[in-house]
Design brief:
Its cofactor is FAD. By secondary structure, the protein is an alpha+beta fold. Helix content is 59%, strand content 9%.
Amino acid sequence: MLTIIILALIAIVVLFAVKNIRMQFITRPVFSFFKKVLPPLSDTEREAMEAGDVWWEGELFRGNPNWNTLHSYGKPTLTAEEKDFIDNQVMTALTMIDDFDIVHNRKDLPPELWEYFKKEGFFALIIPKKFGGKAFSAYANSTIVSKLASRSVSAAVTVMVPNSLGPGELLTHYGTSEQKERWLPALAKGDEIPCFALTGPEAGSDAGAIPDVGIVCRDTFNGEEMLGLKLTWDKRYITLAPVATVLGLAFQMRDPEGLLGDKKNLGITCALIPTDHPGVVIGRRHNPLGMAFMNGTTQGKEVFIPLDWIIGGPEFAGKGWRMLVECLSAGRGISLPALATASGHMATKTTTAYSYVRHQFGMAIGQFEGVQEALARIIANTYQLEAARRLTTTGIDLKVKPSVVTAIAKFHMTELGRSVMNDAMDIQSGKGIQLGPKNYLGHPYMSNPISITVEGANILTRSLMIFGQGATRCHPYVLAEMEAAAMENQHEALERFDALLMGHMGYATRNAFSALFSALSGSRFGSAPVSGETKQYYKDMSRISSALALMTDLSMLIMGGDLKRKEMLSARMGDVLSQLYLGSATLKLFEDNGRQQDDLPAVHYVMANRLHLAAKALEDTIRNFPSRPVAWLLRGLIFPLGNHFNAPSDKMATDLVGGMLKPGPARDRITFLCPEFEGDKGGIAEVEQAFVAQYACKDIYKKLKKAQRAGELPAKVPNLVLFAKALETGVITADEEQKLQHADKLRLAAINVNDFEAL
């Protein structure tokens, strides 16, 4: 028996170690199999993958994250200029906002606010300084949009669009010198208002399928015959289109007569067209869930433009899709996550305050466990939103284009924003559903599906993009193997594939052993860059990472190209990657904040939830895996002792809420994007002032409760009667009675809603 084992081991060593034997019996058959199961890539998919960069998500995908790399990215900070702009211009803009008036009366921003935004450079945040712009960081851009969104989604969207995917960004990155000189200074000053037309009736999330077309031809422009394009388009959902003076347009460029060369279909191209150009039609407005930001349609039929109106000039013909993908990080990684994070900050600020001042059954509603369950989710999700906002903008400010990360941010942050608003509406109930100047929840709640829908519908972002791109882009071998399979020289392709295959097999083996050992040992022997209460989270995240890497390899091996069509499975594996990214952001925020002890309840709740959801996604993938033998193997390697990653406990929830139902630094750190200022017209100041005043009286209220229990004061009487009785019996002093009366007046103002004579 021993001889047989030794001979078998020798045979295995020879099989793998002797190249000629390995090539004949392993590499060639595997290479042939790989080419058969290789998932086909469309041109747009290939361009999308080549356009994006691999950043921190690559570490998470490969089974052994280097946590020191995460910590080395640094803490996002504002420059003195950015801070001054936020402290002055942004705060001034907030005082000019009356969102109820904007949405229900004007259906537009007031002229003075439009003028202020233009004059003070709100539309120039990303434009380089040499063209009159601000050249602010992604973190500053996000902070500005978030603070505006805490009071008005309509105002925030109006500012965010010129600083997101559109003419300003595309010109900055790709424009010719002449185009930059012509347009950027005017855009920076607000003399020109941009919009960008990508979406149409037949092309939404599948933006690469746009039917709008530009035909290369000769025609006359300004009295001169020249080579140009005849454009025909029909676009909708275009933000700022109704007021735009310059239109960015994406279209399919074709050259049927070969005027530019042999290629007939050049591909997606982007051009810049003044909206007063003959033939350009700016259509009627849309009504995006009642919000007042400008959104509408544009059309054109055989509109002739010169070739040099192509962004980047004629040499950028057909390069529009790559340009768009590279610039999508602004919308997906900055603007929409900023709106979601603003919802979290505002909801946490107002709902913790409201839960303290709103009383039912003789006690603050924040003391009811049912309310605490929802309130804990609001607080934890807001901590998560702020963490993800900071990490994602950090990546963008490092000048990488992390397309997978920004897809994760867009999907999960807008969904977390939706969850936060749902819970806030449930807790504040009648206060939230009665629209009026005092209602701060209604408009964000109503507008939330807009963020869910734009920049790629969330369902498709989750099921197609996150794992679909991540599995190929982030994997250390698969993309290179795909490139080897596409090589024309078969001998060179086989040599290249052989080297990659050996590395891939070693990589897969390491991940399998790592996943199993971590599961059996409870990740106790894993490494972590920190000590203390967050140490175990790093170890558990590494375990989940190795499990994801193992599952990805086996999924690609078993399903090959069919994995693209197994959207439910790929979405779940994308969820694992997403939860790892969100957990990373949470741990980094805790470190960036200086490991504040009063942040720990939020960190514990968030991390328990992230690990629970990641493990659940792994388990659900195994349960639905098409090959049952492989599913059994995966379960044995990943969960040999079962899945013990539980959702946050009730104690975690009550501990988290208990620390937030009082003013303090921990609450300030996740509500600062919803600032206080004089002249706040939206009801937020009202509920916050009531909360602070009520909390300042907490010891006086304890005296009243004690006296009621002792029978010295009546139990169920109106507050003002109770205060008077307490003063009369000497339970409280005159000064204390004045404080109680003041706090109660503020409380009543905060819980009251608007009513109207007629609607």
